[in-house]
Design goal:
about 425 residues; alpha/beta; Adenylosuccinate Synthetase, subunit A, domain 2; 3 domains; 10-stranded mixed sheet; 12 helices; about 35% helix; about 20% strand; globular; binds guanosine-5'-diphosphate; binds 6-O-phosphoryl inosine monophosphate; binds magnesium ion
């Protein structure tokens, strides 16, 4: 059985949670590898409807070890709330583990995320304000505090004291905010540590052993390729890599051990937050998609910007991820449309281009070149085999495969676990 990375191939919210929940039924391990509680993964299965932010979407399967990998930044308060909430709903979380190397989101990260955004004014990134960016910045600056640090209270106090002195200077002198109290933060994090200690461990050994035993291991992504700090619409990006390359790093697995990379695409595009989005629809069609699909952020509730599928961006994310297969979700949202469009190229300053520019000013000037396809105007939510899809829907899927040069493995036609059609086998 292979190791499969499941990654977002657009701007996030493609339906990664649903796909992971579905495939996790055959797996023995799911590892979340990046992001933090900026992610919101919705799962609808026989146990109920859930919004997960940090806990891997395999948690509903008792036999699946669920690991929050070293590449994730963890707000312990949010994680404990998520565990409690699942337990109250009857979901067992005793098979949840946390990498001792995962960095923690601290109260100053939350404050700074808000203060930095406000300071940017009209140029704000539109972050989720969960402290994720500042926590990854501290990881790179070697100022981070990690899950493993919670296991040694003396060492935690020493480290926190040094970091907090510095953070308080920034809070008070740069932003005119109130300083944080060492005693309060320390005692709060000691409590979190006591609660989470049984789950914190050297998880790379677990991952290695599962892979060596030949078990199906899923690496669960957060966000999407176009939010990657290197390849996304920088600086309107997130702060950790949502790419397949990030999956190995964030799970502690060597890249030679990854067998498949599945990119999850919506049948159209959405984006939350600021930054260019060439196919955005600021019209009634965009509104129709948003309302029909209830495109509002799982984490922040913000309305998502909606637009047509951008095959230029989709091809780019196929390439930088090295996708072996694609999943198309939310095909059913297109069921009512008489026709719809796919962006097959851009016009940049009067020239046709077929690549995704690295420079956001150039991307913002790109005008989409569309191809219009006929709709099928029939419900697909109860269809379970590819042959039964309306001819126009199959034509659409085939065109996407052609445009992104990648086979489509799976097509989703509703939020439920069973609402999926296998086109070509993943395994
Ligand atoms: P994620 O962050 O990639 O896990 O995606 P989100 O959970 O934030 O957003 C995807 C939304 O689409 C969720 O509300 C899912 O329940 C829903 N969803 C996933 N696949 C489908 C599908 O094929 N059809 C419909 N109608 N909804 C879907
Ligand atoms: P999932 O895993 C969609 C966006 C934010 C903002 C930018 C930076 O559910 O797909 P951040 O808080 O990360 O510093 O914000 O990234 N963003 C997401 N958009 N889905 C997500 O996660 C996102 N996580 C972050 O809206 O534009
Ligand atoms: Mg989401």
């Amino acid at each position: 059985m292979p190791v499969i990375a499941i990654v977002g191939a657009q701007w996030g919210d493609e339906g990664k949670g649903k796909v992971v929940d579905m495939l996790a039924q055959q797996a023995r391990m799911v590892v979340r590898f990046s992001g933090g509680d900026n992610a919101g993964h919705s799962v609808v299965n026989p146990s109920g409807e859930f919004k997960l932010h940090l806990i891997p979407s395999g948690i509903f399967n008792a036999g699946v070890a669920c690991i929050i990998g070293n590449g994730v930044v963890i707000n312990p308060k949010v994680l404990i709330g998520e565990i409690d909430n699942l337990n109250e709903l009857g979901v067992d979380t005793s098979h949840l583990f946390i990498s001792d190397r995962a960095h923690l989101i601290m109260p100053y990260h939350l404050l700074l995320d808000g203060l930095e955004e406000e300071a940017l004014g009209g140029k704000a990134i539109g972050t989720t304000r969960k402290g994720v960016g500042p926590a990854f910045a501290d990881k790179a600056a070697r100022l981070g505090i990690r899950a493993g640090d919670l296991l040694d209270k003396e060492a935690l106090k020493e480290r926190l004291s040094a970091v907090l002195d510095y953070k308080n200077v920034i809070l008070t002198k740069v932003y005119g905010a109130k300083p944080l109290s060492l005693d309060e933060v320390y005692s709060q994090y000691c409590q979190y540590g006591e609660r989470l200690a049984p789950c914190i461990r050297e998880t790379t050994i677990m991952v290695d052993e599962a892979v060596s035993r030949g078990e199906l291991v899923i690496l669960e992504g957060a966000q999407g390729a176009l939010l990657d700090p290197d390849f996304g619409t920088y600086p309107y990006t997130t702060s950790s890599s949502p790419l397949a390359a990030g999956s190995c790093l964030g799970a502690g697995l060597g890249p030679t051990r990854l067998d498949r990379v599945l990119g999850v695409y919506k049948a159209y595009c959405t984006r939350v937050g600021s930054g260019p989005m060439p196919t955005e629809l600021n019209d009634q069609t965009g509104e129709l998609i948003r309302e029909r699909a209830h495109e509002y952020g799982t984490t922040t509730g913000r309305p998502r910007r909606c637009g047509w599928l951008d095959a230029v961006a989709a091809r780019f994310s196929r390439r930088i991820n090295g996708l072996t297969g694609a999943v198309i979700t939310r095909l059913d949202i297109l069921d009512v449309l008489p026709s719809f469009k796919i962006c097959v190229g851009y016009e940049l300053d009067g020239q046709k281009i077929d690549y995704f520019p690295g420079n956001i000013a150039a991307l913002a000037r790109c005008k989409p070149i569309y191809e219009e396809l006929p709709g099928w105007q029939a419900p697909t939510t109860d269809i379970r085999s590819y042959e039964q899809l309306p001819m126009e829907a199959r034509q659409y899927v085939a065109r996407v495969e052609e445009l992104i040069s990648c086979p489509v493995n799976l097509i989703c036609v509703g939020p439920g676990r069973e609402q999926a059609i296998e086109k070509t086998p993943i395994l």
